[in-house]
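Issue: copy button drops trailing tokens. Both records pasted manually instead:
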Amino acid sequence: MKTKLLMLALMLAIAWGLKRHYADARVEDLSWIITPTAYLVSAVTGIGFEWRAGEGYFSHDRLFLLEKSCAGVNFMIAAFAMLVLALLHRGDHAAQAVRIVAGACAASYASAVVVNAVRIVMALWLADHPASTTSLSPADAHRLEGIAVYFGGLVLLHELVRRFDRRAFAVVHTS
């Protein structure tokens, strides 16, 4: 029980620290997450992005800016918390708890880069194909698309961790 409470405390401290860092950060301070996202978007779409100090990654061809709000840190925080909570029942010992929290950090970072790249690729596509029959403004459509992609990313990540957890449980109990 104490180990699980410590896991929760560690999860909250890390999530709070990330949120504080994000709130106070300049775009340069977020290069650890926005740079791989920009490279992945570029690799998938072929669209070139150029770094602009104080702004982010800019595509001259598309007049599209990957700025601080495009970094995906909020998704990373949500994914991290969800992963720790989904695996909380596994944290019976301190070493296992540390592995879970560290693994959740790594998995949430990787998933944030991938899911955020998907969101940006879709945003680029939507910018090229505006829906003329919708009453949504482009900003509202962008926001709705982001919510849908992030929610779908969290659902997919949760399902993956559940399948992994079930498989690990089955291996331990059949050996």
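Record 2 (pasted manually too):
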Amino acid sequence: MTAVIVTADGHRIAVDVDAVAARHANRLLRTAGRLTTDYAREERRFRKWLWRHWGKALTLYLLAWHETNALMTRTVQQRDKNPASSVDQVLEVLLGLQTRACSAAHDAYARVRGGAFGAALGRCRTLHELAVIARVIGEYGRKPEHADLAERYVLHEKVLAYNDALRHQKHATTLEQTPIAAEELDRLRAEHDELVNRFGPHYRGSYGWAHDLRREGQNRMEFADLTRLAELGHLEPYYRRASHEIHADATGIRFALLAVDEQLLPTGGNTTGLVEPANLALLLLQHCTTSLVLFGINPRQAHAIISLRAIQVLVDRTNIELVAGYRSFEAATLHAKTSKWARLRSRWAMYRLNHALSVAFDRAADAEPSENDKI
């Protein structure tokens, strides 16, 4: 491809864009080794700095996550050891949600350690939704009038699969992807229609599986309604804050453009914002675990009570250490700034002194010698 470029003095030059781009790409490739080395060095420095202030908090976070994961593993082992005559749909759904919650919480931990605090907040948004769904299905799915709630939730996957297939089919040619075979699409449509006929037209909605939980006069269920049922509405401000890191709204852009350590665009690891995602991720993971214990397994079991209490202790201690780490970080930042300005003031004072002495010597050299100075 050839393009015409107008220079500053008005000359028009034809440029082979492909050739120039290829040469530029080759130059970049030659710097790959140095760039990788520099990036790895900066990453090590950042992790060392992070661990200096928040090492205890992150260790406690990992311990709480490990105990949560161990509790889920013991629950699965106990279920497999004593199989019931029929599948407990509520338990199966709660275990699936708990698995995703443990994975999301570990992702949040990895992102916090890498300085990607915005991405960690994004995982907190997922954890919030998991906590809400787990509480709703656990609490209401055990009630006789909503005994099929967990089954509705599981079967709703077929509705989502059919909708996804329609979108894929619509754009397959543009994306140069293989369209879904007609037989497969017919099968998905048949499963979708069967469920809609069974549960009603409202089942097509995003939260159609929870339609029977709606308030009187309400047409469709929204996530806000599920949050209300789960009694987690007090966490909505954090949910909205995390949503800004997911969506391309103006608030998310404002957060991204905040100057961090004199950087206009902090696109890499930054040094602020660790406390919120770490605290929120662990809190929401605890909510999911509580739902598993209260509604998925017998809460009177000794191992469940001990694990849940131990997790609570670890979460509380993690929050204390997160705040302590933040104070340590603030003190170190203030000291660094103070030391920086002190060094600048000292250098400025030395510069002024040297300048004054230089001027004095120059004047003395240019002055006419006095009678007393003459030999």
